[in-house]
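Morning run. Coffee first, then this:
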Amino acid sequence: MISMTTIALLAPRSNAATVFAPRHWERLATLGMVIDARFETRAGEVLDRLNEAEVIVSTWGMPAVDAAFLARTPRLRAICYAAGSVKAFVTPALWERGIAVSSAAPMNAVPVAEYTLAVILLANKRFWNFMHHTRAEAGVPEAPGNYRRVVGVIGASMVGREVIRLLHHTDLSIFLYDPFVDEDEAAGLGARKVELPELMAASDVVSLHAPNLPELRHMIDGEMLARVKDGATFINTARGALVDEAALLAELRTGRLYAVLDVTDPEPPAADSPFYTLPNVVYTPHIAGSMDAECERMADFAIDELERFLARRPLRNSIRPEVLSRLA
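And here it is:
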């Protein structure tokens, strides 16, 4: 008799419904015996079903894989995560067991990069200003346009790299700041490596894609923001904590800068935050990442990774403990 791999789909029921379509369940069934381990509010409701699980496929809401969890999953060999950051559930106990972990973060980077590209192109056309002009009959604003302007990308993260790739289809020049990327690698990506002060001063659009690490809190501070040229646009789709928002508001109140903010600190902003009302700010409530049908792209990737694992092929996005300190 051929032994089939036991696969558990473990996730909050509501999140599983968003990420995994019927076709994903059908595909999983071709790869092994599938355990339905969806839960309502607490993973403890279904842990008794995981005793035979060799692989877990999950998404947002995956419980911490600590010693207690591992005691309930003695056969577990891999976790294929159909979402981005794994930091919420990986533990030293997981690594000690040698469990393989894969994340679909590259797929979640796609819609964030698409959002960013759209915002860059619209910002340089002063889209929002012209929209208000048609409503209020205000003075027509000048627009820099998208020919031979400079976009500064902060962080060669998965999102940052995808933004750079998408920008190759434009006539925009790309500056990159990332201390872990040298000039040759930046050139290979299609960008010019510069230091952060030069990027802030030279860019018509600054787009932030650094990881949310404690040591990077307020990396975009008053000194950096003061370097930004008049009329430039600052975009944040990373995390609000990376920006000194008091300093950003001070610059925005002068009217000399524009900002498009998909993330803030706190999130959402306080009810009386000027981010809602300043005419040179566009605020969106953390919509750049995967939404609705876009979430299925992550499930596709996670199951692709499961197939690679079962075929003993290298995973496309294997996560190891030594890289966690550089991930969002």
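The CA atoms of residues 230 and 256 lie 5 Å apart. Good start to the day.
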